[in-house]
Design goal:
Elements lengths: L2 H24 L12 E10 L2 E15 L6 E8 L2 E8 L5 E8 L36 E3 L5 E3 L5 H7 L1
Antiparallel strand pairs: 1-2, 1-5, 2-3, 3-4, 6-7
């Protein structure tokens, strides 16, 4: 009874390893970080005869699906008053890069409800962009306008207290 379960697990484990081995070669080394609701610029490589050029598709990410090399994302934008959606494979060699222009606060995994909206109703609430700032460079101003600088605690100051 229990022998069949163990072999099927072993086979799926082996097939998973083989799939990961093959897919590992197709994955991009660096993938841009973006989330649902972000406004992105997708830089697509387009072949025209023998020449290659890059075309930018700007819009809001309304869905992400799949995993690994099969991961896809859908970008929606309005062109001449008409909604246009385009699906992209995240690890496709046709995609040069994905730049995040603006982030938004969303509470859903799929933003398909934006398809029914028109004009200003399509806009999403903005989210402040996260920026890496060094602790030594942080300067805060209080309401009176004077500057309070964060000073790192020196090791010798700790020793002098004890």
């Amino acid at each position: 009874m229990g022998g069949g379960e163990g072999t099927s697990r072993r086979q799926t484990n082996m097939s998973d390893k083989l799939i990961n081995l093959v897919e590992g070669k197709c994955r991009k080394a660096e993938v841009s970080q973006f989330e649902i609701g972000d406004t992105v610029d997708v830089h697509c490589r387009i072949l025209e005869g023998e020449k290659e050029r890059i075309q930018i598709f700007n819009g809001v990410v309304i869905a992400r699906s799949g995993s690994g090399t099969r991961e896809m994302f859908t970008v929606r934008r309005i062109v001449a008053g008409e909604g246009v959606e385009r699906k992209f494979a995240l690890h496709s060699p046709r995609i040069a890069k994905v730049e995040t222009v603006r982030s938004a606060v969303v509470r859903r995994a799929k933003l398909y409800f934006l398809r029914d909206r028109v004009g200003k109703a399509v806009r999403l609430k903005g989210r402040p962009v996260k920026r890496a700032v060094e602790e030594s460079a942080v300067v805060k101003k209080n309401r009176r306008g004077s500057k309070n600088k964060r000073k790192p605690v020196a090791d010798n100051a700790l020793e002098s207290q004890s």
